[in-house]
Design a protein that fits this description.
This protein is an alpha+beta fold and 129 residues long. It has one domain (34-127): Alpha-Beta Plaits (2-Layer Sandwich). The protein is built from four helices and four strands; from the N terminus they run αβαββααβ. The protein has helices spanning 2-19, 46-63, 89-101, 103-115; strands at 34-40, 69-74, 80-86, 122-127. It has a four-stranded antiparallel β-sheet.
Length: 129
C-alpha cells in the first residue's frame, strides 16, 4: 500500500509539473503596439545570417534613439528573420527613418542581404487592437 501511495504521489507531482498550470505568459503586445515580422530566404547561410541579425539587434539596442524590441528566429519553413515590437505606428516609422539614416545599420543590413544571396527581407506589420 505504501508503494502505491508513493507511485501515485510521483505521478501526481510529475503531471502537475508538466501541466505548468501555474505558469502564465504575458500578451505578446498591447494596444496600440505594432508587431513587425521580417522574413527572408537564405539557403545554405541561415546560421551565418542569424548571427549577423543578432549583431544588428545588439547594435540597435545601444545606438537607436527610438526604443523597440527585436528577436531573431527561424520559421518552420526554413526562412529566417526577426520580429520587432514598436510602441505605435508613429514610433515604428521613426525607427525606420533612423535605420535608413544610420550608415552602420544600413551597412550591417546590406551585408545580411548579401549573405542571403541578395534576397531582401519581406516585412509585414500588425497593429494590435
Amino acid at each position: 500500500m505504501k508503494r502505491v501511495l508513493i507511485l501515485a504521489s510521483i505521478f501526481f507531482c510529475v503531471g502537475t509539473i508538466a501541466d505548468n498550470s501555474g505558469v502564465t505568459l504575458d500578451p505578446v503586445a498591447s494596444v496600440p503596439q505594432v508587431v513587425v515580422v521580417y522574413r527572408n530566404t537564405c539557403p545554405g547561410s541561415e546560421e551565418k545570417a542569424i548571427s549577423m541579425i543578432k549583431d544588428l539587434i545588439a547594435y540597435e539596442r545601444k545606438a537607436s534613439p527610438i526604443a523597440y524590441s527585436s528577436v531573431p528566429g527561424v520559421w518552420n519553413d526554413g526562412t529566417i528573420g526577426a520580429i520587432d515590437l514598436h510602441q505605435s505606428v508613429a514610433m515604428m516609422e521613426k525607427a525606420f527613418e533612423w535605420q535608413g539614416a544610420d550608415s552602420s545599420w544600413s551597412a550591417q543590413y546590406n551585408a545580411i542581404v548579401e549573405v542571403c544571396g541578395g534576397n531582401e527581407f519581406d516585412p509585414a506589420h500588425m497593429v494590435t487592437r
